[in-house]
Amino acid sequence: MAEIKPFSPVKLICGIIASKEATFIKAEERLVQLFDPVDIASPLFIFNYTDYYEKQMGKNLKRKFLSFADLIPPEKLSEIKIQTNKLEEEIREELKEVRRVVNLDPGYLTQSGLIMATAKDFAHRIPLQQGIYAHLELFFSKKRFKTLDWTYPDYRTEEYHEYFMEVRRIYLSQLASLESG
C-alpha cells in the first residue's frame, strides 16, 4: 500500500488584467494585504490575444503577474479564487467605476507545472470546491515550460515562460531551504 504524504507547499501567483495604471496599483495593494509580500512581479504585457474582456473592461488591456513570497498549501486555491472574485468587485467600487475594471487570476506554480483556478467548467478542469475548478495551464519538462491543447494563447508566449521560469527558480530555492531547515 502506498504511503499517503502531505502535499508540498506551492508558489502562489496572480495574474491581473486591467487597462489603467491606477487599477493595477490598487489591485497589487489589495493582493499584498491578502497574501503578503510579492517577491517578483512581471512587467506589463500587452493583452491582445482575445477580445473576451473588452465588452466588460474596455480596450488597451494589459496583464501583469505577481508571485508571492509565502508558500501556500495547494488545497487553498479555491478559497483564494473566491477571495479574488470578491476583490474584483471591491476594487471596482473603491475606484468608483460603473463596470468591471480588473480581472484577477490566481494560480500556483509547482516543480512540474502551473495550475490556474477558474469558475468555468470544461472537460479538462478538475472540480475543487464551491464552484471553483483547477486546470493545468503549463507543465515543466526537459528544462522548459510546455503548453497543452487548451493553454491560453498568451500563456504560450516566451515572455510569460521567462517570467514563470524566474518564479520557478525562486520556488525551488524556497523548497530546498524548507527541506534543509
Explain this structure.
The protein has 181 residues and is an alpha+beta fold. Helices cover 33% and strands 31% of the residues. It contains four helices and nine strands. It has helices at residues 21-35, 54-57, 77-94, 158-180, and strands at residues 10-18, 38-41, 45-46, 62-72, 103-109, 113-118, 126-129, 132-141, 144-147. Strands 1, 2, 3, 4, 5, 6, 7, 8 and 9 form a nine-stranded antiparallel beta sheet that branches. A hairpin with a 2-residue loop joins strand 8 (132-141) and strand 9 (144-147). The model has no long low-confidence stretch (mean pLDDT 95).
What's this entry about, in short?
By secondary structure, this protein is α+β, with helices and mostly antiparallel strands. The chain has helices at about 20-35, 55, 75-95, 160-180, and strands spanning about 10-20, 40, 45, 60-70, 105-110, 115-120, 125-130, 130-140, 145. The chain is globular, with a radius of gyration of 16 Å.
